[in-house]
Design brief:
6 helices; 39 strands
Length: 643
Amino acid sequence: MVWLIFLFQGFYALVPNTPLAGEMDSNKHSHNHISSIKVLGDTLRLEEVEVFSPPLDKYTHGQQIKTIDQENLRDFQGLGLSEVLQQRTALFLRQYGPGMLASLTMRGTSAGHNAVFWNGLPINSPSLGQTDFSILPVGAFDEVSLHFGSGGALYGTDAIGGAVHLNSKLKFGKGHSFQTDSNLGSFGRWNQQLQYGFSDEKISLRTRIYRNIAENDFPFRNLARPGTPVERQEHAAIQQEGFSQDLAFQIKPNQLISSSVWYNQTEREIQPVMGSNTLDVQQDKNLRWVLDYFNFSGKITWNFKTGLVKEQLTFNASENSTSQFFLIGDLDWEFSPCISSKSGVRFTHIQGDLSTYTTEENRIELYQSTNLKLRDDLNVSINLRQFVYDGILAPFTPSVGADWIIFSKSGDELKFHVNGARSFKLPTLNDRFWVPGGNPDLLPESSWSGELGLSYLLKWSNLRINHQLTHYRMWVDNWIIWLPQGNFWSPENIREVHNKGLEYAFDADYLLGSWAFEVQGNYNWVRATNQTNISENDRSAGKQLPYTPIHNFQSLFGVSRGMIKSYVNYHFTGSRFVATDNVAQLPAYMLWDWGLRTGELQLGALQGRIGFQVSNVFNTSYQVMRLRAMPGRNYQFNIQIRL
Protein backbone atom coordinates (compact mmCIF):
# COMPACT_ATOMS: atom_id res chain seq x y z
CA MET A 1 0.00 0.00 0.00
CA VAL A 2 2.84 2.39 0.87
CA TRP A 3 4.47 1.96 -2.52
CA LEU A 4 1.14 2.50 -4.34
CA ILE A 5 0.85 5.82 -2.54
CA PHE A 6 4.39 6.68 -3.61
CA LEU A 7 3.67 5.88 -7.27
CA PHE A 8 0.40 7.80 -7.21
CA GLN A 9 2.15 10.86 -5.78
CA GLY A 10 4.83 10.69 -8.44
CA PHE A 11 2.18 10.57 -11.20
CA TYR A 12 0.26 13.45 -9.63
CA ALA A 13 3.40 15.60 -9.42
CA LEU A 14 4.11 15.14 -13.16
CA VAL A 15 0.84 16.83 -14.09
CA PRO A 16 1.63 20.40 -15.28
CA ASN A 17 0.88 22.81 -12.49
CA THR A 18 2.61 26.17 -12.84
CA PRO A 19 2.05 28.12 -9.63
CA LEU A 20 0.74 31.65 -9.61
CA ALA A 21 2.50 34.24 -7.48
CA GLY A 22 -0.19 34.03 -4.87
CA GLU A 23 0.11 30.24 -4.73
CA MET A 24 3.87 30.48 -4.20
CA ASP A 25 3.33 32.86 -1.29
CA SER A 26 0.79 30.55 0.30
CA ASN A 27 3.09 27.51 0.07
CA LYS A 28 4.85 27.33 3.39
CA HIS A 29 7.66 25.26 1.85
CA SER A 30 8.53 27.64 -0.96
CA HIS A 31 7.98 31.15 0.30
CA ASN A 32 11.03 31.00 2.56
CA HIS A 33 13.43 31.10 -0.36
CA ILE A 34 11.82 33.86 -2.45
CA SER A 35 13.75 37.15 -2.23
CA SER A 36 11.94 40.40 -1.54
CA ILE A 37 13.10 43.51 -3.41
CA LYS A 38 12.17 47.11 -2.62
CA VAL A 39 13.05 50.14 -4.76
CA LEU A 40 13.48 53.40 -2.87
CA GLY A 41 14.31 56.26 -5.24
CA ASP A 42 17.52 55.19 -7.01
CA THR A 43 18.40 52.68 -4.27
CA LEU A 44 17.75 48.94 -4.65
CA ARG A 45 17.32 47.39 -1.20
CA LEU A 46 17.31 43.62 -0.76
CA GLU A 47 15.29 42.24 2.09
CA GLU A 48 17.07 39.48 4.01
CA VAL A 49 15.38 36.13 3.32
CA GLU A 50 16.54 32.73 4.56
CA VAL A 51 17.35 30.07 1.99
CA PHE A 52 14.81 27.25 2.01
CA SER A 53 15.57 24.08 3.95
CA PRO A 54 13.10 21.27 4.66
CA PRO A 55 11.55 21.57 8.13
CA LEU A 56 12.95 18.92 10.44
CA ASP A 57 9.92 18.72 12.70
CA LYS A 58 7.16 18.48 10.09
CA TYR A 59 6.51 14.73 10.51
CA THR A 60 7.41 14.42 14.20
CA HIS A 61 4.09 14.87 16.00
CA GLY A 62 4.33 13.26 19.42
CA GLN A 63 8.12 13.61 19.62
CA GLN A 64 10.49 16.08 21.22
CA ILE A 65 12.93 18.29 19.28
CA LYS A 66 15.25 20.89 20.79
CA THR A 67 17.06 23.44 18.60
CA ILE A 68 20.20 25.37 19.54
CA ASP A 69 20.36 28.33 17.17
CA GLN A 70 23.27 30.44 15.94
CA GLU A 71 22.86 33.02 18.70
CA ASN A 72 23.27 30.40 21.42
CA LEU A 73 26.23 28.80 19.62
CA ARG A 74 28.07 32.12 19.65
CA ASP A 75 29.67 31.50 23.07
CA PHE A 76 31.26 28.25 21.81
CA GLN A 77 33.01 29.41 18.62
CA GLY A 78 36.11 27.27 18.00
CA LEU A 79 35.09 24.63 20.54
CA GLY A 80 33.72 21.18 19.81
CA LEU A 81 30.01 20.34 19.72
CA SER A 82 30.60 18.26 22.84
CA GLU A 83 31.07 21.49 24.86
CA VAL A 84 27.73 22.86 23.66
CA LEU A 85 25.81 19.72 24.56
CA GLN A 86 27.42 19.53 28.00
CA GLN A 87 26.58 23.14 28.90
CA ARG A 88 23.20 23.62 27.19
CA THR A 89 21.47 20.23 27.62
CA ALA A 90 21.12 17.48 30.21
CA LEU A 91 22.62 14.91 27.83
CA PHE A 92 25.65 12.90 28.93
CA LEU A 93 28.79 12.58 26.82
CA ARG A 94 31.42 9.98 27.54
CA GLN A 95 34.49 12.21 27.24
CA TYR A 96 38.05 10.86 27.50
CA GLY A 97 39.61 14.27 28.19
CA PRO A 98 39.27 17.80 26.75
CA GLY A 99 39.30 17.52 22.97
CA MET A 100 39.58 13.73 23.13
CA LEU A 101 36.95 11.23 22.00
CA ALA A 102 33.47 12.36 23.08
CA SER A 103 30.51 10.08 22.38
CA LEU A 104 26.89 10.93 23.07
CA THR A 105 24.37 8.81 24.91
CA MET A 106 20.66 9.62 24.59
CA ARG A 107 18.04 7.90 26.75
CA GLY A 108 20.61 5.44 28.08
CA THR A 109 21.67 4.01 24.73
CA SER A 110 25.22 3.49 23.50
CA ALA A 111 27.33 5.87 21.39
CA GLY A 112 26.36 4.10 18.17
CA HIS A 113 22.63 4.40 18.84
CA ASN A 114 22.45 8.07 17.83
CA ALA A 115 22.25 9.12 14.18
CA VAL A 116 24.17 12.27 13.20
CA PHE A 117 23.38 14.32 10.08
CA TRP A 118 25.02 17.28 8.35
CA ASN A 119 22.69 19.15 5.99
CA GLY A 120 20.63 16.00 5.62
CA LEU A 121 23.52 13.55 5.06
CA PRO A 122 24.22 10.82 7.66
CA ILE A 123 27.83 11.19 8.83
CA ASN A 124 28.25 8.40 11.38
CA SER A 125 31.30 6.31 10.52
CA PRO A 126 30.21 3.06 8.78
CA SER A 127 33.23 1.28 10.28
CA LEU A 128 32.93 2.52 13.88
CA GLY A 129 29.20 3.26 13.86
CA GLN A 130 29.42 6.59 15.68
CA THR A 131 30.61 10.22 15.53
CA ASP A 132 33.27 11.89 17.67
CA PHE A 133 31.57 15.09 18.89
CA SER A 134 34.81 16.67 20.07
CA ILE A 135 36.07 17.16 16.49
CA LEU A 136 32.91 18.82 15.17
CA PRO A 137 33.85 22.52 15.55
CA VAL A 138 30.91 24.78 16.31
CA GLY A 139 32.04 27.40 13.78
CA ALA A 140 31.41 25.04 10.85
CA PHE A 141 27.58 25.05 11.12
CA ASP A 142 24.82 27.45 12.13
CA GLU A 143 22.25 25.36 13.97
CA VAL A 144 21.99 22.16 16.01
CA SER A 145 18.72 20.25 16.34
CA LEU A 146 18.32 17.34 18.74
CA HIS A 147 15.62 14.73 18.11
CA PHE A 148 14.98 12.77 21.32
CA GLY A 149 13.88 9.18 21.04
CA SER A 150 13.56 6.55 18.34
CA GLY A 151 13.76 7.96 14.83
CA GLY A 152 14.46 4.91 12.68
CA ALA A 153 11.33 5.45 10.58
CA LEU A 154 12.44 9.01 9.81
CA TYR A 155 16.22 8.67 9.55
CA GLY A 156 17.20 5.02 9.12
CA THR A 157 19.92 3.15 10.96
CA ASP A 158 21.45 4.25 14.29
CA ALA A 159 18.57 6.47 15.49
CA ILE A 160 17.56 4.24 18.42
CA GLY A 161 18.25 6.79 21.15
CA GLY A 162 17.88 9.90 19.02
CA ALA A 163 19.37 11.99 16.25
CA VAL A 164 21.54 15.10 15.96
CA HIS A 165 21.22 17.43 12.97
CA LEU A 166 23.87 20.03 12.03
CA ASN A 167 22.63 22.58 9.52
CA SER A 168 24.00 25.49 7.50
CA LYS A 169 21.76 28.54 7.15
CA LEU A 170 22.28 30.85 4.17
CA LYS A 171 20.34 34.04 3.43
CA PHE A 172 19.61 36.10 0.33
CA GLY A 173 19.81 39.88 0.16
CA LYS A 174 22.70 40.64 2.53
CA GLY A 175 25.30 41.97 0.10
CA HIS A 176 28.99 41.63 0.98
CA SER A 177 30.09 40.70 4.50
CA PHE A 178 33.33 39.83 6.26
CA GLN A 179 33.69 38.39 9.73
CA THR A 180 36.54 37.29 11.93
CA ASP A 181 36.24 35.37 15.21
CA SER A 182 39.13 35.04 17.64
CA ASN A 183 39.15 33.00 20.82
CA LEU A 184 41.95 32.92 23.41
CA GLY A 185 41.79 30.63 26.40
CA SER A 186 43.59 28.78 29.16
CA PHE A 187 46.03 25.94 28.56
CA GLY A 188 47.24 27.13 25.18
CA ARG A 189 43.88 27.51 23.47
CA TRP A 190 43.72 29.73 20.39
CA ASN A 191 40.90 29.57 17.87
CA GLN A 192 40.68 31.70 14.75
CA GLN A 193 38.00 31.81 12.04
CA LEU A 194 37.62 34.00 8.94
CA GLN A 195 34.37 34.26 7.00
CA TYR A 196 33.37 35.99 3.78
CA GLY A 197 29.86 36.08 2.37
CA PHE A 198 27.94 37.62 -0.49
CA SER A 199 24.29 37.44 -1.44
CA ASP A 200 21.79 39.24 -3.64
CA GLU A 201 18.32 38.28 -4.84
CA LYS A 202 19.62 35.29 -6.85
CA ILE A 203 22.79 33.96 -5.24
CA SER A 204 24.08 33.41 -1.74
CA LEU A 205 27.56 32.17 -0.90
CA ARG A 206 29.77 31.94 2.16
CA THR A 207 33.33 30.77 2.76
CA ARG A 208 34.69 29.92 6.22
CA ILE A 209 38.26 29.03 7.18
CA TYR A 210 39.25 28.08 10.72
CA ARG A 211 42.16 26.92 12.84
CA ASN A 212 41.85 25.68 16.43
CA ILE A 213 44.79 24.91 18.73
CA ALA A 214 44.96 23.72 22.35
CA GLU A 215 47.94 22.47 24.35
CA ASN A 216 45.72 21.07 27.15
CA ASP A 217 48.61 21.28 29.63
CA PHE A 218 46.30 21.72 32.62
CA PRO A 219 47.20 20.70 36.20
CA PHE A 220 45.42 17.68 37.68
CA ARG A 221 45.69 15.39 40.68
CA ASN A 222 47.16 12.05 39.57
CA LEU A 223 45.13 9.42 41.40
CA ALA A 224 47.29 6.59 40.01
CA ARG A 225 50.46 7.65 41.85
CA PRO A 226 51.27 7.36 45.57
CA GLY A 227 50.19 10.48 47.42
CA THR A 228 48.08 11.63 44.42
CA PRO A 229 50.45 14.47 43.49
CA VAL A 230 49.36 17.41 41.38
CA GLU A 231 50.92 17.12 37.94
CA ARG A 232 50.59 18.92 34.63
CA GLN A 233 48.96 17.04 31.80
CA GLU A 234 51.32 16.06 29.01
CA HIS A 235 50.76 14.66 25.52
CA ALA A 236 47.21 15.99 25.01
CA ALA A 237 47.69 18.73 22.40
CA ILE A 238 45.21 19.29 19.57
CA GLN A 239 45.49 21.10 16.25
CA GLN A 240 42.56 21.45 13.90
CA GLU A 241 42.15 23.15 10.52
CA GLY A 242 39.31 23.24 8.05
CA PHE A 243 37.10 25.18 5.72
CA SER A 244 33.49 25.17 4.54
CA GLN A 245 31.91 26.55 1.40
CA ASP A 246 28.15 27.13 1.11
CA LEU A 247 26.37 28.21 -2.05
CA ALA A 248 22.71 28.68 -3.02
CA PHE A 249 21.36 29.81 -6.39
CA GLN A 250 17.77 30.60 -7.29
CA ILE A 251 17.44 29.26 -10.84
CA LYS A 252 13.83 30.38 -11.24
CA PRO A 253 11.23 31.67 -8.77
CA ASN A 254 10.22 28.05 -8.14
CA GLN A 255 13.62 26.33 -8.44
CA LEU A 256 16.56 26.42 -6.06
CA ILE A 257 19.93 24.69 -6.01
CA SER A 258 22.28 24.66 -3.02
CA SER A 259 25.60 23.01 -2.22
CA SER A 260 27.92 22.78 0.78
CA VAL A 261 31.47 21.44 1.18
CA TRP A 262 33.16 20.88 4.54
CA TYR A 263 36.73 19.70 5.03
CA ASN A 264 37.97 19.13 8.58
CA GLN A 265 41.36 17.84 9.72
CA THR A 266 42.29 17.16 13.35
CA GLU A 267 45.61 16.01 14.76
CA ARG A 268 45.64 14.86 18.38
CA GLU A 269 48.06 13.57 20.93
CA ILE A 270 45.88 10.99 22.66
CA GLN A 271 45.72 11.86 26.35
CA PRO A 272 46.92 8.83 28.36
CA VAL A 273 45.11 7.52 31.42
CA MET A 274 46.53 8.54 34.77
CA GLY A 275 49.70 6.61 35.53
CA SER A 276 50.39 5.75 31.88
CA ASN A 277 53.10 7.13 29.62
CA THR A 278 51.67 6.06 26.25
CA LEU A 279 52.40 8.36 23.31
CA ASP A 280 49.57 7.52 20.91
CA VAL A 281 48.67 9.99 18.17
CA GLN A 282 45.63 10.20 15.92
CA GLN A 283 44.79 12.11 12.77
CA ASP A 284 41.22 12.50 11.46
CA LYS A 285 40.51 13.81 7.95
CA ASN A 286 36.87 14.35 6.98
CA LEU A 287 35.49 15.56 3.66
CA ARG A 288 31.75 16.14 3.30
CA TRP A 289 29.87 17.45 0.27
CA VAL A 290 26.16 17.80 -0.44
CA LEU A 291 24.17 19.11 -3.43
CA ASP A 292 20.41 19.83 -3.26
CA TYR A 293 17.91 20.70 -5.97
CA PHE A 294 14.43 21.93 -4.98
CA ASN A 295 11.45 22.37 -7.28
CA PHE A 296 8.32 24.02 -5.91
CA SER A 297 5.10 23.43 -7.85
CA GLY A 298 2.08 24.71 -5.99
CA LYS A 299 1.65 22.42 -3.01
CA ILE A 300 4.37 20.03 -4.18
CA THR A 301 8.09 20.13 -3.39
CA TRP A 302 10.60 17.91 -5.16
CA ASN A 303 14.02 17.47 -3.55
CA PHE A 304 16.93 15.65 -5.18
CA LYS A 305 20.07 15.28 -3.10
CA THR A 306 23.48 13.78 -3.71
CA GLY A 307 26.51 13.81 -1.47
CA LEU A 308 29.79 12.31 -0.40
CA VAL A 309 31.26 11.60 3.04
CA LYS A 310 34.91 10.52 3.17
CA GLU A 311 36.81 9.71 6.36
CA GLN A 312 40.43 8.83 6.99
CA LEU A 313 41.51 7.93 10.51
CA THR A 314 45.19 7.26 11.20
CA PHE A 315 45.96 5.90 14.66
CA ASN A 316 49.74 5.73 15.15
CA ALA A 317 50.75 3.92 11.92
CA SER A 318 47.40 2.22 11.27
CA GLU A 319 45.29 3.88 8.53
CA ASN A 320 41.57 3.30 8.03
CA SER A 321 39.46 4.95 5.31
CA THR A 322 35.78 4.85 4.42
CA SER A 323 33.68 6.56 1.75
CA GLN A 324 29.90 6.94 1.50
CA PHE A 325 28.16 8.14 -1.65
CA PHE A 326 24.46 9.13 -1.50
CA LEU A 327 21.63 9.57 -3.98
CA ILE A 328 18.36 10.75 -2.43
CA GLY A 329 15.05 11.81 -3.91
CA ASP A 330 11.78 12.65 -2.23
CA LEU A 331 8.45 14.26 -2.94
CA ASP A 332 6.70 16.37 -0.28
CA TRP A 333 3.16 17.50 -0.99
CA GLU A 334 0.01 18.82 0.61
CA PHE A 335 -2.83 16.72 -0.68
CA SER A 336 -5.37 18.80 1.24
CA PRO A 337 -5.41 21.16 4.24
CA CYS A 338 -5.72 18.05 6.41
CA ILE A 339 -3.25 15.69 4.69
CA SER A 340 0.42 16.16 3.82
CA SER A 341 2.84 13.45 2.80
CA LYS A 342 6.43 12.75 1.84
CA SER A 343 7.73 9.72 -0.09
CA GLY A 344 11.32 9.02 -0.97
CA VAL A 345 14.24 6.74 -1.59
CA ARG A 346 17.87 6.88 -0.45
CA PHE A 347 20.68 4.90 -2.06
CA THR A 348 24.06 4.58 -0.33
CA HIS A 349 27.25 3.05 -1.66
CA ILE A 350 29.95 2.38 0.95
CA GLN A 351 33.61 1.58 0.42
CA GLY A 352 35.85 0.57 3.29
CA ASP A 353 39.63 0.28 3.12
CA LEU A 354 40.78 -0.54 6.62
CA SER A 355 43.94 -1.95 8.10
CA THR A 356 42.61 -5.55 8.25
CA TYR A 357 39.95 -5.71 5.53
CA THR A 358 38.52 -4.14 2.37
CA THR A 359 34.82 -4.19 1.55
CA GLU A 360 31.99 -2.57 -0.42
CA GLU A 361 28.31 -2.39 0.38
CA ASN A 362 25.12 -1.03 -1.21
CA ARG A 363 22.16 0.13 0.82
CA ILE A 364 18.71 1.27 -0.26
CA GLU A 365 15.91 2.77 1.82
CA LEU A 366 12.27 3.44 0.95
CA TYR A 367 10.37 5.77 3.25
CA GLN A 368 6.92 7.26 3.59
CA SER A 369 5.70 9.94 6.01
CA THR A 370 2.15 11.24 6.37
CA ASN A 371 0.57 13.93 8.52
CA LEU A 372 -3.14 13.82 9.29
CA LYS A 373 -5.01 16.74 10.79
CA LEU A 374 -7.93 14.85 12.30
CA ARG A 375 -9.28 17.92 14.09
CA ASP A 376 -8.10 21.45 14.73
CA ASP A 377 -6.63 20.24 18.01
CA LEU A 378 -5.40 16.77 16.95
CA ASN A 379 -2.48 16.06 14.58
CA VAL A 380 -1.02 12.63 13.76
CA SER A 381 2.25 11.59 12.07
CA ILE A 382 2.71 8.14 10.50
CA ASN A 383 6.22 7.20 9.34
CA LEU A 384 7.33 4.01 7.56
CA ARG A 385 10.75 2.86 6.34
CA GLN A 386 12.24 -0.29 4.82
CA PHE A 387 16.01 -0.62 4.73
CA VAL A 388 17.93 -3.17 2.63
CA TYR A 389 21.71 -3.71 2.83
CA ASP A 390 23.43 -6.11 0.43
CA GLY A 391 20.15 -7.93 -0.15
CA ILE A 392 19.40 -8.31 3.59
CA LEU A 393 16.19 -6.82 4.96
CA ALA A 394 16.66 -4.72 8.07
CA PRO A 395 13.68 -4.61 10.46
CA PHE A 396 10.69 -2.79 9.02
CA THR A 397 10.42 0.43 11.03
CA PRO A 398 7.08 2.16 11.59
CA SER A 399 6.27 4.99 13.97
CA VAL A 400 3.02 6.68 14.95
CA GLY A 401 2.79 9.89 16.96
CA ALA A 402 0.14 12.42 17.88
CA ASP A 403 -0.20 15.88 19.44
CA TRP A 404 -3.48 16.74 21.12
CA ILE A 405 -4.11 20.31 22.27
CA ILE A 406 -6.15 19.79 25.43
CA PHE A 407 -6.89 23.48 25.69
CA SER A 408 -5.66 26.72 24.17
CA LYS A 409 -6.95 30.04 25.38
CA SER A 410 -5.60 33.55 26.00
CA GLY A 411 -1.96 32.60 25.55
CA ASP A 412 -2.19 29.34 27.55
CA GLU A 413 -1.78 26.00 25.78
CA LEU A 414 -1.71 22.51 27.24
CA LYS A 415 -0.67 19.78 24.82
CA PHE A 416 -0.52 16.00 25.15
CA HIS A 417 2.09 13.99 23.18
CA VAL A 418 2.20 10.28 22.44
CA ASN A 419 4.48 8.24 20.19
CA GLY A 420 5.34 4.62 19.49
CA ALA A 421 8.20 3.56 17.23
CA ARG A 422 10.53 0.83 16.08
CA SER A 423 14.20 1.55 15.27
CA PHE A 424 17.31 -0.40 14.37
CA LYS A 425 21.06 -0.26 14.02
CA LEU A 426 23.00 -2.17 11.39
CA PRO A 427 26.15 -4.01 12.49
CA THR A 428 29.15 -1.84 11.67
CA LEU A 429 31.71 -2.83 9.06
CA ASN A 430 34.16 -3.60 11.88
CA ASP A 431 31.56 -5.79 13.59
CA ARG A 432 31.18 -7.89 10.46
CA PHE A 433 34.54 -7.86 8.70
CA TRP A 434 37.35 -7.09 11.18
CA VAL A 435 40.20 -9.62 11.01
CA PRO A 436 40.34 -11.52 13.26
CA GLY A 437 36.96 -11.69 14.95
CA GLY A 438 34.46 -10.10 12.58
CA ASN A 439 31.09 -11.85 12.47
CA PRO A 440 29.28 -11.51 9.08
CA ASP A 441 26.20 -13.31 10.48
CA LEU A 442 25.30 -10.57 12.96
CA LEU A 443 21.70 -9.37 13.01
CA PRO A 444 20.75 -5.69 13.22
CA GLU A 445 20.01 -4.42 16.71
CA SER A 446 16.29 -3.75 17.05
CA SER A 447 14.27 -1.60 19.43
CA TRP A 448 10.67 -0.82 20.29
CA SER A 449 9.83 2.31 22.23
CA GLY A 450 6.92 4.37 23.46
CA GLU A 451 6.60 7.76 25.10
CA LEU A 452 3.97 9.99 26.68
CA GLY A 453 4.35 13.68 27.37
CA LEU A 454 2.70 16.90 28.42
CA SER A 455 3.75 20.42 27.50
CA TYR A 456 2.38 23.65 28.88
CA LEU A 457 2.97 27.07 27.35
CA LEU A 458 2.03 30.27 29.18
CA LYS A 459 2.21 33.71 27.59
CA TRP A 460 1.13 36.59 29.79
CA SER A 461 2.12 40.20 29.30
CA ASN A 462 5.96 40.23 29.37
CA LEU A 463 6.25 36.65 30.64
CA ARG A 464 6.61 33.42 28.66
CA ILE A 465 6.95 30.04 30.39
CA ASN A 466 7.22 26.64 28.72
CA HIS A 467 7.25 23.25 30.49
CA GLN A 468 7.57 19.79 28.96
CA LEU A 469 7.54 16.44 30.75
CA THR A 470 8.12 13.15 28.92
CA HIS A 471 8.10 9.54 30.11
CA TYR A 472 9.56 6.89 27.82
CA ARG A 473 10.24 3.17 27.73
CA MET A 474 12.47 1.31 25.31
CA TRP A 475 13.37 -2.33 24.66
CA VAL A 476 16.54 -3.05 22.67
CA ASP A 477 17.18 -6.61 21.50
CA ASN A 478 20.11 -8.23 19.64
CA TRP A 479 22.43 -5.67 21.27
CA ILE A 480 25.92 -6.41 19.90
CA ILE A 481 28.73 -7.04 22.35
CA TRP A 482 32.32 -8.15 21.73
CA LEU A 483 33.32 -11.26 23.71
CA PRO A 484 36.61 -13.19 24.05
CA GLN A 485 36.88 -16.19 21.69
CA GLY A 486 40.18 -17.88 22.48
CA ASN A 487 43.00 -15.59 21.34
CA PHE A 488 40.77 -12.86 19.94
CA TRP A 489 37.47 -11.08 20.52
CA SER A 490 34.34 -11.43 18.37
CA PRO A 491 30.91 -9.70 18.42
CA GLU A 492 27.63 -11.47 19.10
CA ASN A 493 23.92 -10.54 19.31
CA ILE A 494 23.65 -11.50 22.93
CA ARG A 495 22.43 -8.61 25.03
CA GLU A 496 18.94 -7.32 25.75
CA VAL A 497 18.53 -3.91 27.38
CA HIS A 498 15.47 -2.22 28.88
CA ASN A 499 15.46 1.57 29.17
CA LYS A 500 13.02 3.85 30.90
CA GLY A 501 13.21 7.44 32.01
CA LEU A 502 11.82 10.91 32.55
CA GLU A 503 12.79 14.08 30.72
CA TYR A 504 11.78 17.49 32.01
CA ALA A 505 12.51 20.75 30.18
CA PHE A 506 11.72 24.26 31.37
CA ASP A 507 12.43 27.65 29.85
CA ALA A 508 11.13 31.11 30.60
CA ASP A 509 11.67 34.71 29.48
CA TYR A 510 10.62 37.85 31.35
CA LEU A 511 10.92 41.52 30.45
CA LEU A 512 10.98 44.09 33.24
CA GLY A 513 11.54 47.56 31.90
CA SER A 514 14.98 47.62 30.33
CA TRP A 515 15.93 44.30 31.94
CA ALA A 516 15.50 40.90 30.27
CA PHE A 517 15.67 37.65 32.23
CA GLU A 518 16.07 34.11 30.90
CA VAL A 519 15.83 30.82 32.82
CA GLN A 520 16.11 27.30 31.47
CA GLY A 521 16.44 23.87 33.02
CA ASN A 522 16.72 20.29 31.78
CA TYR A 523 16.57 17.12 33.87
CA ASN A 524 17.02 13.51 32.74
CA TRP A 525 16.33 10.45 34.86
CA VAL A 526 17.54 7.29 33.11
CA ARG A 527 17.37 3.62 34.04
CA ALA A 528 19.13 1.49 31.41
CA THR A 529 19.41 -2.08 32.67
CA ASN A 530 20.99 -5.10 31.05
CA GLN A 531 18.71 -8.15 31.00
CA THR A 532 21.19 -10.84 29.96
CA ASN A 533 24.11 -12.60 31.62
CA ILE A 534 26.74 -13.47 29.02
CA SER A 535 28.38 -16.28 31.03
CA GLU A 536 27.90 -18.39 34.16
CA ASN A 537 30.05 -16.03 36.18
CA ASP A 538 28.40 -12.88 34.84
CA ARG A 539 26.25 -10.99 37.32
CA SER A 540 25.27 -8.04 35.13
CA ALA A 541 21.59 -8.89 34.57
CA GLY A 542 19.35 -6.25 36.12
CA LYS A 543 22.26 -3.80 36.53
CA GLN A 544 22.64 -0.28 35.16
CA LEU A 545 24.78 0.01 32.02
CA PRO A 546 28.32 1.32 32.61
CA TYR A 547 28.89 5.08 32.29
CA THR A 548 25.17 5.82 32.21
CA PRO A 549 24.28 8.28 34.99
CA ILE A 550 20.82 7.91 36.46
CA HIS A 551 20.54 11.66 37.10
CA ASN A 552 21.63 14.51 34.84
CA PHE A 553 20.61 18.13 35.33
CA GLN A 554 21.46 21.41 33.61
CA SER A 555 20.19 24.92 34.27
CA LEU A 556 20.99 28.41 33.05
CA PHE A 557 20.09 31.84 34.36
CA GLY A 558 20.71 34.84 32.12
CA VAL A 559 20.13 38.54 32.55
CA SER A 560 20.68 41.36 30.08
CA ARG A 561 20.28 45.10 29.98
CA GLY A 562 21.17 47.27 27.07
CA MET A 563 24.40 46.04 25.48
CA ILE A 564 25.43 43.64 28.27
CA LYS A 565 24.30 40.08 28.88
CA SER A 566 25.53 37.73 31.60
CA TYR A 567 24.69 34.14 32.43
CA VAL A 568 25.39 31.43 35.00
CA ASN A 569 25.23 27.79 33.95
CA TYR A 570 25.03 24.82 36.32
CA HIS A 571 25.52 21.18 35.34
CA PHE A 572 25.10 18.13 37.59
CA THR A 573 26.10 14.61 36.51
CA GLY A 574 25.24 11.72 38.77
CA SER A 575 27.50 8.82 39.71
CA ARG A 576 28.39 6.30 37.00
CA PHE A 577 29.26 2.63 37.32
CA VAL A 578 32.50 1.72 35.54
CA ALA A 579 31.63 -1.93 34.81
CA THR A 580 28.60 -4.13 34.21
CA ASP A 581 28.71 -5.60 37.75
CA ASN A 582 27.91 -2.16 39.22
CA VAL A 583 30.52 -2.49 42.00
CA ALA A 584 32.98 0.35 41.33
CA GLN A 585 31.64 3.78 40.47
CA LEU A 586 32.77 7.34 39.82
CA PRO A 587 31.36 10.04 42.11
CA ALA A 588 28.84 12.62 40.95
CA TYR A 589 30.11 16.09 40.13
CA MET A 590 28.77 19.63 39.78
CA LEU A 591 30.16 22.25 37.40
CA TRP A 592 29.45 25.99 37.33
CA ASP A 593 30.16 28.27 34.38
CA TRP A 594 29.85 32.03 34.06
CA GLY A 595 29.82 34.21 30.99
CA LEU A 596 29.57 37.86 30.00
CA ARG A 597 29.12 39.22 26.49
CA THR A 598 28.14 42.42 24.76
CA GLY A 599 25.50 43.05 22.17
CA GLU A 600 26.28 44.71 18.85
CA LEU A 601 29.11 47.24 19.15
CA GLN A 602 29.78 49.62 16.27
CA LEU A 603 32.80 51.74 15.38
CA GLY A 604 32.41 53.34 11.97
CA ALA A 605 31.91 50.57 9.43
CA LEU A 606 32.98 47.92 11.94
CA GLN A 607 30.58 45.93 14.06
CA GLY A 608 31.39 43.30 16.63
CA ARG A 609 30.87 41.56 19.93
CA ILE A 610 33.11 40.74 22.87
CA GLY A 611 32.67 37.87 25.31
CA PHE A 612 34.36 36.37 28.35
CA GLN A 613 33.65 32.97 29.93
CA VAL A 614 34.87 31.09 32.98
CA SER A 615 34.31 27.33 32.93
CA ASN A 616 34.39 25.19 36.08
CA VAL A 617 34.28 28.33 38.24
CA PHE A 618 34.89 26.50 41.53
CA ASN A 619 37.86 24.49 40.18
CA THR A 620 36.09 21.16 40.74
CA SER A 621 38.24 18.04 40.37
CA TYR A 622 36.24 15.39 38.52
CA GLN A 623 36.40 12.51 36.07
CA VAL A 624 33.90 11.77 33.33
CA MET A 625 35.62 8.46 32.53
CA ARG A 626 37.78 6.54 35.00
CA LEU A 627 41.37 7.87 35.31
CA ARG A 628 40.84 10.42 32.53
CA ALA A 629 41.91 13.83 33.82
CA MET A 630 39.70 16.85 33.17
CA PRO A 631 40.70 20.53 33.50
CA GLY A 632 39.89 22.71 36.49
CA ARG A 633 38.99 26.38 36.29
CA ASN A 634 39.71 27.81 32.84
CA TYR A 635 39.08 31.06 31.01
CA GLN A 636 38.13 32.09 27.52
CA PHE A 637 38.03 35.46 25.78
CA ASN A 638 36.42 35.85 22.37
CA ILE A 639 36.00 38.76 19.99
CA GLN A 640 33.99 38.95 16.79
CA ILE A 641 34.45 41.68 14.17
CA ARG A 642 32.19 42.16 11.14
CA LEU A 643 32.51 44.46 8.18
